[in-house]
Each structure stands twice: as structure tokens, then as C-alpha cells.
Amino acid sequence: MNISKAILFGSALLAGAFVSCKEDGPMKWVDLRYLAEDSYTLTAVSPVPIRLQVKSTDPWKVYGREPSWCSITPSEGGASELFDVTVQYTENTELDDRLDTLVIQSDYWIGKWIPVRQKGTAYLNIEGAEDLTIGQFGGTAQFSIRANQDWSLAKTEDAPWLKLIKTSGHGDAEIVLATSAENKGERRFADIAVLNRHNEKELTVRVWQDGVVLSPSEARMRTTFDAQILSVEVSSNADWTVEKGDASAGWIDFPQTEFSGDGTLRIALTENTGASIRTAEVLLKTKAADGFEQIVKSIVIRQAYNPTPDYYDFDASGLEQWIINGADNDKSSCKVVGNCLEIYGAQKVHRYNCAAGNWDFFMKASSAKAQPVIYFQCGDFDMRWFVDVGAGKTNVTMVDKGKTKTFSDFNVPYSSTECHKFGIKMTPDKDGWAVFSWVLDDKVLGSYTTNGENVQTSALKYSQDLKFHIFVGAWESGGTANQTTIWSGWQYTLPYEFIDWGE
Question: Which of 21, 236, 248, 347 could form a disulfide with 27 if both were Cys (CB 3.0 to 4.6 A apart)?
């Protein structure tokens, strides 16, 4: 009876076992262990030696299928001792790659076959092909081939306007591309495949011919619901015009409709007072002249609607969306009166998983020494807005990554007997980080960017996945207890960035 078995130790250390026994004889094990990569790739010139480790319970050997290419030291060894094996390949002077296989073996057990590829000396490179351009009225362009082998060139697409002066050769060469054809259409290109001695494509060279240019900087645009003027930079070497794709789109207009060469296209939009996104296509067209092709480019504009706020009273139904949680958890200090929430002393209500966007909180009235508060928390980010009624000012305190700092104080006119709107607006900056602005009665007081630019600033990307823990309530000012703050309601407005654009 003959049995073979392999045992794996770790990621690269293998134990193999060969077992043989007779009906009445003892069983023999061969334990072969080695440290080696699954494969090796070597350079043609000055190849780095391959280093292995081998240990076996029986004599072992390492050998290659191509012994004339390499020397192995030691190539064999006795039992039990750990051996460091060095495999050194000679330089490959041939153009083509060559392949070998190293074999690690003990007794009759072959533990591993290791493929070895040694690169050949062949090379095929190009120079000066980064921006190959032929003029609109014809001409030439040139690049260089650097090689030590046969090569050939072939146009990869049908481009009858382009001529290859030389299509094959050996070694270094200067390649000239030419056309006598005038390009009366848009800028065009042709791709040229550079083939090696085996007729395999190794490189691609692209050559352009200048033509009629009409290139707007934007092809698709999204914008807010507001009345506004959009600007689009247009590159051109021709006379061109602009028009509506649909003449009935009365909400867009153009202060200027005819241009010559480069220009700034301005598109005037009226306010979108509807309840849905509207779309318009703007068409740019070159003027046809002397047989030149007319070039048409399209700009698609999508204008958002003004999202309607979702408003809730702080009545019994509205309060069900919040959790009462004051310093002493005394629910008697926080109660619904009519459609308002009356808070006495230091008490708050809160809710989890609140979406990013625009939040407004409406305060009906407050005691002269009350201090209404709004907190927005997300991980290490904790923004706390305090309104000091008695002092007639507000301040925003950041507790960001364990560091506390007062952002700013604002002296603002404030009547404790009138309704006020406190807003937290969120917008993205140019890099997509969340910017928080606090707004009192529609006046922006300040802002804070969570771009993570220092160790005390959270890094919060503005997205629909950004969620907050919000607290609304009151704080005792100057140790004065039993002050009253009355909140009438709150609302959330979906920002236009989160609108379903239907794309």
C-alpha cells in the first residue's frame, strides 16, 4: 500500500509527507518544509538571486528544468537541518523571455513546482507622441521609435485622411505622419498601433487633426430654483449661435445669441415656482460656410423646485416624535399647552437619526432670563447654540473631538415676547464637506466647516447618509431657575442637493 499526504503550515511554509508501508512493515513519513514564493520574475540583466529555505526529515534536492541557465547552492542536503538555498540565473541575452521551473523534492515527494520567468532583452518604446497634432489645412506630425527588434505600424481605425510614410522597420526610426486633406468638420483623430516582432500590439499612438472647434465647458448642469443667470465658457474658432432645443421653454432666455470665436454664453433662468424639476436643452451651432460641416453641441439644464418644508407643531402629536430628557428627567418641567411645548428650567427634548439639511425651530416666547438652546451632535461633533435672552446675544459652542471652544458672540436685537425662528442650515463646500450655518430670523450669524483640516475639527461629508442627534430646550441662565421657554414647532426642508433628480 502507498499513500501520499501534504500538510500546510502558515501562508508559505508547507509540509509534505510521503508514506509507504508493507502489509507487515512500519509506516514511513517524509516531512518536507520550505519557504518560497509561488512564482518569480527576473530581469534579463543582473537578475537578483532567488533565496529559499528547505528542511526535511529525509535528504532533499532542488533542481531546475533548465540547469544550463542557473546554479543552485546548495542543490541538496541532509535530514533535519534548515538550509538556505540560493538560485542564481545567468543573464538572458536573447530578445524573448525564457521560462524555467524550480522543483523542491525529498525522497519521492515533490513539494512544489515554482515557475520562473526571466525577461528578454527586447524593448520597443516611443518618444515625442504625447500631443501629435496636424493643422486643419494639412501638414505633418512626427514621433520616434526606440527599439532593438523588428516593428510595424497599422492604423487601428479607418482614417483615409492620414498617411503613414513608413510602416515597418528594425531598431530606431523617425516616423512621419502626413495629410494633405483639409478638415471641414470637427477635430478628428486616428489611432496607430505599434506592433512588435511577433505582430503583437504593444503601444498606441493617437494623432489629431485640427478642425472646427465648438466646445462648451459644461454639457449637463443642475441648479437651484432661484431666478439666476448661468455662465458657460465656450471655446470655438468659428461663428456660432445659441438657441433653445424646445422653443416653448419660456423659462430660459439668452441675452446674446450670436458669437464669433471663444465666448461666454449666459443663460437666464426664471424662478421655478412649480413642484417638480424642469429640464431644458440649449443648442450651440456653428454657422455653415464654404462646405464646412455644421457642428452642434447640446447643454442640458435641470432646475430644481423649491422644496416645501415639512412643518410640525409641538402639540401632543408632534411631541411623540421626541424624547423628553432633562437634567433630572422631570417630565413635569416639559409639557404641552395647546399646540406649544412649555419648558421650565433646564429641560430638553431630543430625537435620533435626523437627516442633514435645513432645520428651523420656532420659539413663541421666553422669560426674560431664560436661555433657549439647540444642540446638533454627530460623533465627536457637538454644536450647541445658546440664546441669552437677558443679555440680548447668542453664542455657539463647539465641542469637537474633545476640544471646547466658543465660536462667536453676537449682539442681536431680541424680544422675549415675540416669536423667533432659529435655523440650522447645512450646505456642502467645494470639496463636499458639511458647512453649518446658524440663522436667527432668516439672518445668518455665522458658520463652521467640518473639513477635518486640524485635529480639533471633525471630517463630515455632506450627504444623505449624514445623521444627527438633535436637542431642543432651555438652559438656566445665571443660576436663575424656573424660567419658561415656549417652543411652538419645527420644520425640516430637504436641500436641493438631495432632490431625486430622476437620473
Answer: 21
Tell me the range of 158-167, 294-303, 439-448 where mean pLDDT is highest. 294-303
Q: CA of 24: how far to CAs of 27, 182, 196, in Å? A: 10, 94, 64
CA–CA distances in Å: residue 485 to residues 342, 377, 416: 6, 22, 9
Given a cut of 70, is residue 14 above it in pLDDT? no
- For residue 186, the 8-state DSSP code is B
Which phi-psi region, left, alpha or beta, contains residue 122 (left: φ > 0; alpha: ψ -120 to 50)?
Answer: beta
Cis amide prior to 495 (ω within 30 degrees): no
| pLDDT > 70: percent of the chain | 88
| Span 446-455, pLDDT tens digits | 888 888 776 5
On the question of pLDDT at 430 being above 50, the answer is yes
Tell me, rounded to whole angstroms, the distance of Cα 399 from its chain centroid.
29
Q: Supply the CATH number for residue 440's domain.
A: 2.60.120.200
Torsion angle of C-alpha atoms 218, 221, 226, 232, degrees rounded to 10: 10
Q: Check which CATH number belongs to the domain holding 292 and give it.
A: 2.60.40.10
Name the residue with cell 509527507: 17
Same domain (yes/no): 104, 166: no
Rounded CA separation 283/285 (Å):
6
Q: Compute the mean pLDDT over every residue in the chain, rounded to the nearest whole number.
A: 87
With H, G, I as helix, E, B as strand and everything else as coil, classify residue 331. Answer: helix
Q: Domain limits at 14?
A: 2-118
- Report pLDDT digits (tens) over 155-210: 988 889 999 999 999 999 999 999 998 999 999 999 999 999 999 999 999 999 99
Residues 358 and 487 in one domain: yes
Closest CA to 280 of 242, 252, 243, 304: 252
The torsion angles phi and psi of 60, rounded to 5 degrees, stand at -135, 170
Cβ contacts of 368 within 8 Å, gap of 6 or more: 389, 390, 416, 483
Q: Is 21 helix (H, G, I), strand (E, B) or coil?
A: coil
Asked if residue 108 and residue 185 are part of one domain, the reply reads: no
Bigger pLDDT: 111 vs 125: 125
- Within a domain: residue 503? no
Residues 357, 485, single domain; the answer is yes
What the block records as the C-alpha cell of 408 is 462667536
Query: Collapsing DSSP states into helix, strand and coil, what is residue 496?
Result: helix
382, 272: one domain: no
Q: Do 349 and 476 fall within a single domain?
A: yes
334, 455: one domain = yes
Looking at residue 242, its amino acid is: V
In a domain, 479, yes or no: yes
**What was the pLDDT predicted at 487?**
93
- Are 51 and 135 in the same domain? no
State pLDDT tens for residues 41-73.
Answer: 999 999 999 999 999 999 999 999 999 999 999
